[in-house]
Amino acid sequence: xxxxxxxxxxxxxxxxxxxxxxxxxxxxxxxxxxxxxxxxxxxxxxxxxxxxxxxxxxxxxxxxxxxxxxxxxxxxxxxxxxxxxxxxxxxxxxxxxxxxxxxxxxxxxxxxxxxxxxxxxxxxxx
Length: 126
Description:
By secondary structure, this protein is an alpha+beta fold. It is 30% helix and 33% strand.
């Protein structure tokens, strides 16, 4: 009887660890790509994530902050971060798509410093 309880506890602990590892690995990706990289590269990548603006046109995907809770000094760019999970043999197990918003400082646009080195202030998962 003690063995049954011990095995049950071990199984529960393994399940909890597996769930926490799984949730962590698929969390909100923190993107550091510049607006220049996003708008000029065909398939910009950040680690295992492929990023694409939605829609694919920078002018349509990005806008100045104007909604409740947003900062008027920031630019908000809608994007999708995609990650393909494969097994060791190369078989696709799952594809993860995350709707994200990349937040940039608007001063890069107003100071005329160019868009080459502008890194996002933060990434927000929707």
